[in-house]
Amino acid sequence: MNLLSDIQNLVANPVLTNEPLARHTTYGVGGPAQFYVNPANRKDLLQVLEFCGKTNQQYFIIGHGTNLLVSDQGYAGLIISLAKSFKSLEISAGKIIAETGLSLRRLVRESLHNNLTGLESLAGVPGTVGGAIKMNAGAFGTEISNFLVEVEVIDETGLIKSLSAAEIDFSYRRSSITNGQIITRARFELAYGDPDQIKDHCDLANDKRIASQPIDKRSAGSVFKNPRSDLAAGYLIDQCGLKGSKSGGAEISTKHANFIVNTGNATASDIIALINLAYHKVKKQFGIELELEIKTLGFAERIIP
Ligand SMILES: Cc1cc2nc3c(=O)[nH]c(=O)nc-3n(C[C@H](O)[C@H](O)[C@H](O)COP(=O)(O)OP(=O)(O)OC[C@H]3O[C@@H](n4cnc5c(N)ncnc54)[C@H](O)[C@@H]3O)c2cc1C
Q1: 71 and 298 in contact (C-beta within 8 Å)?
Q2: pLDDT tens across 216-257, in order?
Q3: Residue 285: how many CB atoms within 10 A of its CB?
Q4: Is 301 an active-site residue?
Q5: Does the domain formed by 214-297 have CATH 3.90.78.10?
Q6: Which fold would CATH assign to domain 89-211?
Q7: In this predicted model, what pLDDT tens digit does every residue of 88-97 receive, in sequence order?
Q8: Top-level CATH class of 3-81?
Q9: Where do the structural domains in the chain lie, given as residue ranges?
Q10: Strands (E), 15-123
Q11: Ligand 1 pocket, 297 CB below 6 A?
């Protein structure tokens, strides 16, 4: 038996091999994953994770790849995606239970349809509910953790655990959920609000996003975290005169300096060159060491030396 058939025997859906991760990231870059699987249900997911635990097989959970930079060499392990089969959503009396492969946009839209208020500022943030919780996604003063009550996580020991939001350490674009923990389900609680106000608030958030971000181009959102709440990484990069800087097919957005966009044929190396350019120029000019917001996968070394 080889590794592929071992994994295939555990899941109903086909296990893909050498799957280009450029297909699964909004940057549109990234080499192949050795294996890629969409578990059809919790039983399959659990079996795969237990297998990884017992055999020391490396794995990584991907959402919609909207905050992810994958190396040009790809990933020598198993990618697990919940985005096809883990998308159920129940809403009742202000309580929402969502599987985490669901898109965040759908969660926000369904909240709106149910006259529930809280998540409006997140309208337009791409990605899955799972990715949003892991990253503590936020916009215009709201973070997803503000409305989270509880999650279910599974790891490679096969242990299924409920964690209350208070048990998770959330901060700006960060949670204490580890890379081995897969969030499968989340419970939120929202208050009822005025339907017109909720819709207006969503529209406003979308309009602000359209006005300030290059959403018509391939990117992974903000590359760096803001060093302080009153000091934006994009401002610092702009002050260094770097808007429009290019490396191969990658460009520091002319619209928002904290976004690097793929203008068509960028590689991960092109993007890394611009990340380094911005990091070092900001460090030299302001003495500030920017911290990456995007997650990286498949790199042997730190991408900022
Ligand atoms: C145009 C654009 C605009 C953006 N604007 C914003 C913004 O305003 N605010 C903001 O916060 N972000 C923003 N982002 C970044 C991104 O949308 C968020 O970080 C998003 O929440 C990532 O979700 P994802 O499913 O794509 O995760 P991925 O990028 O696939 O993964 C990100 C991390 O989450 C982990 N992960 C994914 N799913 C799970 C799971 N089920 N269990 C455990 N871990 C998991 C991954 O392992 C990885 O570490 C933007 C991105 C783009 C492209």
Answers
A1: yes
A2: 999 999 999 999 999 999 999 999 999 999 999 999 999 999
A3: 13
A4: no
A5: yes
A6: 3.30.465
A7: 999 999 999 9
A8: alpha beta
A9: 3-81, 89-211, 214-297
A10: 16-20, 32-37, 59-62, 68-70, 75-81, 89-92, 95-99, 116-117
A11: no
